[in-house]
Design a protein that fits this description.
The chain is mainly β. It folds into two domains: 145 residues, UDP N-Acetylglucosamine Acyltransferase, domain 1 (3 Solenoid), CATH 2.160.10.10; 30 residues, no CATH class. The chain is built from no helices and 25 strands.
């Protein structure tokens, strides 16, 4: 069953997957595609033609703009913004109001299982890798590798995360492994390499 709160504004030209919940005051625009079993918290904005996979959680007050793709299992914390314009201006150099043909969309991709912390901003042209973790308040200006942990403004790589979310540590053999679940990641470089 699809659940759409009565205060939500969901375009009839959006595709919503089975088991998805869209809560108070959300707006989902035409051409958006939202997969199965997703949760869109209060006041989420999903722009036209945005692609969202299944089992995605988007917390309150997020803005997901045109050009964004969220793969399955993505988490966006409260107030996250996925931007799409590298050269934002309201007007052209001649003073005329910019229209749809006066700018180029800068796509953003958040890959499978990645999590983006509260109040983070992802700039256009950025890909956040599989199971990567973006710390709260980060401003991400360049790609984040699979399992990468980035923090700060601009965001910088400080380590790697397990699929379960915990920070990886070197084991006795010098391989990054999860101290909680024990999963080893022999393909990832040790921090500082």
């Amino acid at each position: 069953m699809i659940r759409i709160h009565p205060t939500a504004d969901v375009s009839p030209r959006a595709v919503i997957g089975e088991g998805t919940s869209i809560w108070h005051q959300c707006q989902v625009r035409e051409g958006a595609h939202i997969g199965e079993q997703c949760i869109l918290g209060k006041n989420v904005y999903v722009d036209f033609d945005v692609q969202i996979g299944s089992r995605v959680k988007i917390q309150n007050n997020c803005s997901v703009y045109h050009g964004a793709t969220l793969e399955d299992g993505v988490f966006l914390g409260p107030h996250v913004v996925l931007t799409n314009d590298l050269y934002p201006r309201a007007i052209n150099p001649d003073g005329s109001l910019k229209g749809n043909d006066d700018w180029e969309v800068g796509p953003v991709r958040i890959c499978y299982g990645a999590a983006v912390g509260a109040r983070s901003v992802i700039l256009p042209g950025v890909t956040v890798g599989r199971f990567a973790l973006v710390g709260a308040g980060a401003v991400v200006t360049r790609d984040v590798p699979d399992h990468g942990i980035v923090v700060g403004c601009p965001a910088r790589l400080i380590g790697y995360a397990c699929a379960c979310g915990h920070r990886l540590q070197p084991d006795e053999a010098g391989v990054l492994a999860c101290p909680r679940c024990g999963t080893a990641y022999p393909g990832l470089p040790l921090e500082g390499e």
